[in-house]
Amino acid sequence: MKRIGVLTSGGDAPGMNAAVRAVVRCGLDRGMEVYGIQRGYEGLIDGAIKEMDMSSVGDILHRGGTILRTARSERFKTEEGQKHAINVLSAFGIEGIVVIGGDGSFRGGLELSQRGITVMGLPGTIDNDLGYTDFTIGFDTAVNTVLSAVSNIRDTSSSHERATVIEVMGRHCGDIALYAGLTGGADNILVPEMPFDINKVCRKIIQGKNRGKMHDIIMKAEGVGVDAKELAQLVEEKTGKETRVVILAYLQRGGSPTAKDRMLASRTASKAVELLYDDESSKAIGICGSEIVAYDLEKALTIKRPFNADLYHLADVLSK
Amino acid sequence: MKRIGVLTSGGDAPGMNAAVRAVVRCGLDRGMEVYGIQRGYEGLIDGAIKEMDMSSVGDILHRGGTILRTARSERFKTEEGQKHAINVLSAFGIEGIVVIGGDGSFRGGLELSQRGITVMGLPGTIDNDLGYTDFTIGFDTAVNTVLSAVSNIRDTSSSHERATVIEVMGRHCGDIALYAGLTGGADNILVPEMPFDINKVCRKIIQGKNRGKMHDIIMKAEGVGVDAKELAQLVEEKTGKETRVVILAYLQRGGSPTAKDRMLASRTASKAVELLYDDESSKAIGICGSEIVAYDLEKALTIKRPFNADLYHLADVLSK
Amino acid sequence: MKRIGVLTSGGDAPGMNAAVRAVVRCGLDRGMEVYGIQRGYEGLIDGAIKEMDMSSVGDILHRGGTILRTARSERFKTEEGQKHAINVLSAFGIEGIVVIGGDGSFRGGLELSQRGITVMGLPGTIDNDLGYTDFTIGFDTAVNTVLSAVSNIRDTSSSHERATVIEVMGRHCGDIALYAGLTGGADNILVPEMPFDINKVCRKIIQGKNRGKMHDIIMKAEGVGVDAKELAQLVEEKTGKETRVVILAYLQRGGSPTAKDRMLASRTASKAVELLYDDESSKAIGICGSEIVAYDLEKALTIKRPFNADLYHLADVLSK
Amino acid sequence: MKRIGVLTSGGDAPGMNAAVRAVVRCGLDRGMEVYGIQRGYEGLIDGAIKEMDMSSVGDILHRGGTILRTARSERFKTEEGQKHAINVLSAFGIEGIVVIGGDGSFRGGLELSQRGITVMGLPGTIDNDLGYTDFTIGFDTAVNTVLSAVSNIRDTSSSHERATVIEVMGRHCGDIALYAGLTGGADNILVPEMPFDINKVCRKIIQGKNRGKMHDIIMKAEGVGVDAKELAQLVEEKTGKETRVVILAYLQRGGSPTAKDRMLASRTASKAVELLYDDESSKAIGICGSEIVAYDLEKALTIKRPFNADLYHLADVLSK
């Protein structure tokens, strides 16, 4: 393959720029032409496409967000939009594209793939909710961002001997809450994958109080079926401990990517370019253990993500 | 004076530990005994008081929060509570105390002062809402914490070409919003001191959009009379630009204090100890320009804080 | 096993506290008694040992360094020292210990193991130089610390259009240089595992210059056989580009551990306690892919670490 | 005045971009044309000058370094070079320029001023060594950068019970060492303005050791007449305490500017533009207390900077 494109789609994630940079530079290194597609599938339909060279990805490795910008596209969900996208790609002579995004972006890529474009998917989402890969690009940065918020909140929470509910991202997948909760020393971790038991939560807080613990942190994924403010009230009523709420929201989306995310982005992007160069069929690239792996794109979307119950249990033991 | 106490009261602020450390070490250096009073006026009433030495304030200079802990005390608002506090102090032979806190804590100190205890007030609050001092301990840290949040939000906000409303602390005083807004490049700054004009806000966003600006940040103090979510909706309707909300809340209270806050804390604390040593009457210590200043405690509470309209105007010019 | 000890030995690493915390809490959770041994094998010989409870490891998860302190022990290298250590352990009734450290610390543990004490080794070193585990505790933090230094240096280096030699830790293992170099966008990476070619270094700098690159970063592991200052001079002579040197030294040793290091520390510590509880023989615990693994302690020390040539090549492609 | 220029010169400092941005936007707001001059006086001589608009300074407020780049110019020291610079300026119709830099840059500006160009100097240097202003742009960021290095070093230094010599910038002015030393809790602060007494240094370390202090930090300005390595050896010999050296070097030059530096840069730049607009004569702009002040450029260079002996003494008391 001689001419490829790259786009970022869906919610942005730290490390997307590192991935774009690696796609461009690995592509050029193999003598391919690389085109940057703006604003995901929206820009693809609009033909917002321009050729990239070495310097067009200079000085972006350490930046959060994505220089290609990103968007969610309603038009691309229609058959007409998809046909239009195909026409644009053929007009540019682009035979294959690298799609950096999450679940929805991959489904979009599958549509293109079924219309004859080779699509390599890179897992670009902070949510770590893709089943075929151990980790997604942006997850490690998001978890570390939550950790630094936790350390700020711990200061003030201890000074006032308060409990704090920290709500983090994760509608269906509780990994941000699980990883940040375990590594942040949260006393309680609430994830969508596990039943929510207010009494268990309060029990631990009361036990901690009796042990002289000054602060309590309840790490809650947004997907858990209880409103953060209501949860705080319940806790206050049942434990008698003043309880506050912090919703981290979009803070978790930005920031300079960590080494781990830059590495994952660089390695998966390099693999995607290699597969395009070898004219392989559409794949989803990810990491399994230390190995970069590639699954058939359609199959990858069917792989369910197992919840890591061992970590959940370990977190519980460590915060007893 | 040979025996003094120190307490932190009201909302905690980064730098309170630096102040406690300086009170203890400067006191000991002058041959005084220094007692730490736990949980503000609550602990004072309870007699939760212990003598401090050099090492009891070791390794705290860089920590957020306050090792003495803090609280708001209802009991101390009663005459009975205040009398009780006086008895405790005389039982310990403590003739003067350093109170690190905000407006309310100083009023509490005034009550003790009128009952014969010398009280030196240090401005410990992130809000920068004390009229007699240019800056308060914790303000600089809070502003820098907001700045790092802004830089995270800028990443994702640019990638999605969104506007974001960032709500920061400040019920009556908009300084956090003003300083973080100006230095964070916010397009709009909303503070309680100035009238809120939704049309002016939207005008700037639309102008920025036409100029190709990718992100817009609206820095809003909590004291401004409009709900953050409602504001976001209004902006979205009037500008057609997707708008999100982030409420930083207690994040702003924690974190390792900046050099400026540690310096302010150390210098004001040293001054407070000097004044106690010299048996001066109750004072509020602050900074004016580069000078550490001390006003009569009662008088200090009457000084109104002028809003810095020049900075507000400059911020407007810089973000045009 | 009912009574265990834990010590940190050799150079400290961020995450050692997270490991100590997990050893203590997992041990208590299994009904074991856990003793903290101060200053590594030095403190063991001196009997500087005290029992730990839940709170003795409170509020340390996020701290760099090690609350148990660490040291290199000459005395322990002697047979007499080792015998003495065994006597101390039996006096305390400690049947097994967790040793958190690097290569040398594990060899020390092996001596105890051969004298009848069960020893579980956790990989605590920033150098990532243990062959039996993919990663060591502290490595991820060190790499991210180097990244933030790189971003500071990039600012000034670009402003002056300079090259900068950054020397990082790694006498025999170049992983810090390799990972920080690849993820920091270094133009050249010098590691002990690969031959040093001054001409290749200068070639890339000259090419970058011609491409309009403003800054160049040469990431050098200390183990590479050329003095950093001499290297800078050579580069300046051969490329005509002003070249500076920064030696990060002990900066890389400290800092709050990253989520990845806290997780690795918590998981390996939990495994070590489980193995002690099950009266397993001495082991070295590590991570392989996503799995926590345990090798026979003696065997683990014989496993050579392969250099990751793929990453080295990828870094070269990305910085071309 | 209708057409002005702006350049950054000498060593770069965090906040220079904030100053450039404010010069451009305040200038445009007053209806002036603003030209950016590349690489300081070098670019001025070369005519590397281009007009700036609102967007040419977008997204730079938070970046370290300077987008205009900077250099030291030998050519500009010659009369010929200066004449040439004047010709370039008149060819572009530029009547006044804002020079952002230190002492040397101001002297260069004075030459232009004496040849009929109005020059407004902004204090852009991390060294805080300009006598006419309380603070320079970049100083606060540099001090905070040193503080975060101190906190990393404290971790490892405590774990090993070591002393560490930290060498910071400052050839003639010890302010970085003084401010970072006081606010970082250094046990000893060595500045060029005060005599160096090895015995006093060791006395404090020995006293700290006897008080159970685990780490010692010696904050040394580079201008102090003793080599850092030799100092460490001396300390080790005289105190028996293992002593390490860290030289922060160019780390101190980079990093995202703090709120304080961005504010100082914005306010002084706004003042400079106002003075140019009002056709005032050449001035040096600075801050005195909270007020932005402007001195005659030539006079400003004659003002000596007094050493702050009170802070030096306070630091000593706090670390006793």
UniProtKB/TrEMBL annotation, chains A, B, C, D:
Keywords: Allosteric enzyme, ATP-binding, Cytoplasm, Glycolysis, Kinase, Magnesium, Metal-binding, Nucleotide-binding, Transferase
Binding, substrate: 125-127, 162, 169-171, 222, 244, 250-253
Binding annotation for ADP: 21-25, 154, 185-187, 211, 213-215
UniProt keyword Nucleotide-binding, yes or no: yes
Location in the cell: Cytoplasm
Cofactors: Mg(2+)
Active site, per annotation: 127
GO biological process: canonical glycolysis; fructose 1,6-bisphosphate metabolic process; fructose 6-phosphate metabolic process
Pathway: Carbohydrate degradation; glycolysis; D-glyceraldehyde 3-phosphate and glycerone phosphate from D-glucose: step 3/4
Modulation of this protein's activity: Allosterically activated by ADP and other diphosphonucleosides, and allosterically inhibited by phosphoenolpyruvate.
GO molecular function, one term: 6-phosphofructokinase activity
Name of a matching Pfam family: PFK
UniProt catalytic activity: beta-D-fructose 6-phosphate + ATP = beta-D-fructose 1,6-bisphosphate + ADP + H(+)
Domain (Phosphofructokinase) ranges: 3-276
EC number: 2.7.1.11
Positions annotated to bind Mg(2+): 103
Annotated Gene Ontology cellular component terms: 6-phosphofructokinase complex
Residues involved in ATP binding: 11, 72-73, 102-105
HAMAP family referenced in this protein's UniProt entry, alphabetically: Phosphofructokinase_I_B1 (MF_00339)
Subunit structure: Homotetramer.
Annotated family: Belongs to the phosphofructokinase type A (PFKA) family. ATP-dependent PFK group I subfamily. Prokaryotic clade 'B1' sub-subfamily.
Function: Catalyzes the phosphorylation of D-fructose 6-phosphate to fructose 1,6-bisphosphate by ATP, the first committing step of glycolysis.
Annotated protein name in UniProt: ATP-dependent 6-phosphofructokinase
Origin species: Hominibacterium faecale
